[in-house]
Inverse folding.
């Protein structure tokens, strides 16, 4: 390993070292605030390490991982979200019986797994990254000892995520049998050299896509999502909806671009079918929910369906650069608005109560009692609905353009219908917040949390009104990718 | 000595059958311990597919992936059993449906 290799992989190393430091400090001196600050500092240091690493990229460190600006883009977003999650978790966990410090260690380990996924170009790294993240998440979901929903959510997630992982693994095994290779780029070579007709090879790819669909909770593989989102502690739900989804999508994108798996009709149809189902039924089922967390769960299912339009455009368009640009812009917008919504839910909930503040009725009067939080939530919801001047509008606009360019008409129609339905249930929450009467007791406001919400809300508006910097950055990333 | 070679398809079919058995177990069983066991069967089916691949291409890659699958299974079961203990302590049974409070 040369010094350039070490420089390229510096972010991963920094985060690993910071995890070890936090672990040692917790071993000697338990202090909730100190652990939180150290973890956030670790994320900040890792973020800073991304810049020298970018100078050394693109570079393959061992055949397993490819460090390029694509990975750096995702890593930057994961680190920001992880830091936000740690900041808002402090007030949320405070007062809970038992030990709180391991929560932050697990959060950092899950982020390390996500960063590995974003740079993996080999099945072994894919498996390692995915499981480092998933197994940390099982524990994070079950973390609050009181209350019954977290335990049930963790068990459900463990079993169904396990089914997803094994499906993915069987797919990998079949692909390996057919091609003799575990690296994405080499699979591509056999994908071209007349292997397409091999039934085992196609079955392997289909199983791999199904496994990924479990992780992205696309309909019909979404059964776990609403229950897990509702039962998990609010900051963990936010993390689950953002980092865990985006990292799996990052590797799916890399896999699809490097192996051109979507050029096979069977795989293309499979992905298109799950996309349409997710967009339509995700939004329809969200109408029936009374819990904000469940509404956001179905909304994330629908958004993953929208995102697949970008993925399909990669193979439908001659110029895959535009499709890649679409995916990255959409993801940036999706992550910003989803993390904001869950940050607000976190701040009006507490780990000491039986369940989080999550019923739509509990949000009544939030505008009058917690104006800053309610404003942040409103911006996030309007952005999720795709109202102009927000990040969500730019994201959907991009998808629409890519879909039209690629002539994916049925998908475009599903997106339009889905978005129209979605406005109803997002506005339902906004109207609840403006109502005058309110009964629910909210925990005290923390300045840190309020400040985080303001920054996130401003980011959504900024991305929606002046997206040029983001688009420029994404275009540079796409040029160096492939 | 003549080596009797098993056709690779047979091994893959066996892996898929094992996988299907495990999946059926996950779908029909309600006891958490049995759910974890079914998951374990599914993981071993994947391991078998990798070993078959390793033998077919005469490479170590398949075996290495099998080791990773094994450690994954161990980690998953460790967390799973931790949750099982919590469930047992709180409800005195291991039925996942009876522990269901979240509206499906």
């Amino acid at each position: 390993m040369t010094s350039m290799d070490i420089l390229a992989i510096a972010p991963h190393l920094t985060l690993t070292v910071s995890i070890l430091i936090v672990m040692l400090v917790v071993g000697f001196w338990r202090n909730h605030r100190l652990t939180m600050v150290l973890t956030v500092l670790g994320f900040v240091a890792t973020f800073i390490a991304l810049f020298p690493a970018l100078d050394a990229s693109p570079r393959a460190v061992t055949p397993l991982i490819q460090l390029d600006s694509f990975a750096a883009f995702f890593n930057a977003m994961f680190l920001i979200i992880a830091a936000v999650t740690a900041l808002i978790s402090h007030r949320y966990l405070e007062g809970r019986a038992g030990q709180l410090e391991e929560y932050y260690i697990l959060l950092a380990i899950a982020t390390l797994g996500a960063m590995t996924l974003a740079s993996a170009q080999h099945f072994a790294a894919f498996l390692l990254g995915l499981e480092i993240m998933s197994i940390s998440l099982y524990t994070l979901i079950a973390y609050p000892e009181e209350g019954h929903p977290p335990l049930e959510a963790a068990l459900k997630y463990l079993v169904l995520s396990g089914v997803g992982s094994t499906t993915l693994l069987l797919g990998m095994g079949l692909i390996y049998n057919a091609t003799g290779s575990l690296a994405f780029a080499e699979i591509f070579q056999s994908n071209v050299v007349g292997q397409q007709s091999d039934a085992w090879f196609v079955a392997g790819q289909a199983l791999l896509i199904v496994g990924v669909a479990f992780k992205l909770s696309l309909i019909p593989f979404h059964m776990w999502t609403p229950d897990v989102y509702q039962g998990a502690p609010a900051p963990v739900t936010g993390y689950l909806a953002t980092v865990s989804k985006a990292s799996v999508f990052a590797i799916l994108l890399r896999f699809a671009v490097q192996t051109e798996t979507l050029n096979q009709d069977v795989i293309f149809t499979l992905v298109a079918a799950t996309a349409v189902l997710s967009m339509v039924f995700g939004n329809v089922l969200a109408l029936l929910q009374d819990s904000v967390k469940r509404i956001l769960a179905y909304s994330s299912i629908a958004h993953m369906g929208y995102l697949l339009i970008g993925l399909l455009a990669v193979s439908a368009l001659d110029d895959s650069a535009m499709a890649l640009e679409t995916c990255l812009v959409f993801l940036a917008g999706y992550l910003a608005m989803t993390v904001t919504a869950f940050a607000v839910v976190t701040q009006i909930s507490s780990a000491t109560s039986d369940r989080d503040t999550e019923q739509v009725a509990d949000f009544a009067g939030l505008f009058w009692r917690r104006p800053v939080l309610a404003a942040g939530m409103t911006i996030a919801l309007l952005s999720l609905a795709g109202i102009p001047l927000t990040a969500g509008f730019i994201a959907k606009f991009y998808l629409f353009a890519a879909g039209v360019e690629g002539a994916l008409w049925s998908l475009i129609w599903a997106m339009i219908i889905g978005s129209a339905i979605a406005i109803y249930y997002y506005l339902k929450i906004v109207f609840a917040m403006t109502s005058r009467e309110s009964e629910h007791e909210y925990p005290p406001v923390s300045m840190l949390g309020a400040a985080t919400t303001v920054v996130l809300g401003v980011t959504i508006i900024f991305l929606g009104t002046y997206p040029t910097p983001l688009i420029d950055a994404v275009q540079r990333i796409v040029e160096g990718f492939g | 000595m003549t080596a009797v070679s098993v056709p690779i398809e047979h091994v893959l079919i066996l892996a898929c059958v094992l996988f299907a058995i495990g999946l059926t177990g996950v779908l029909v069983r309600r006891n958490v311990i049995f759910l974890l066991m079914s998951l374990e069967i599914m993981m071993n089916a994947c391991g078998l597919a990798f070993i078959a691949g390793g033998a077919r291409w005469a490479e170590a890659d398949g075996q290495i992936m099998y080791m990773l699958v094994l450690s994954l299974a161990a980690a998953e079961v460790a967390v799973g059993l931790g949750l099982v203990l919590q469930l047992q302590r709180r409800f005195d049974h291991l039925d996942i449906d009876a522990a269901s409070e979240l509206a499906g």
Q: What stands out?
A: The first helix of chain B runs from residue 8 to 28.
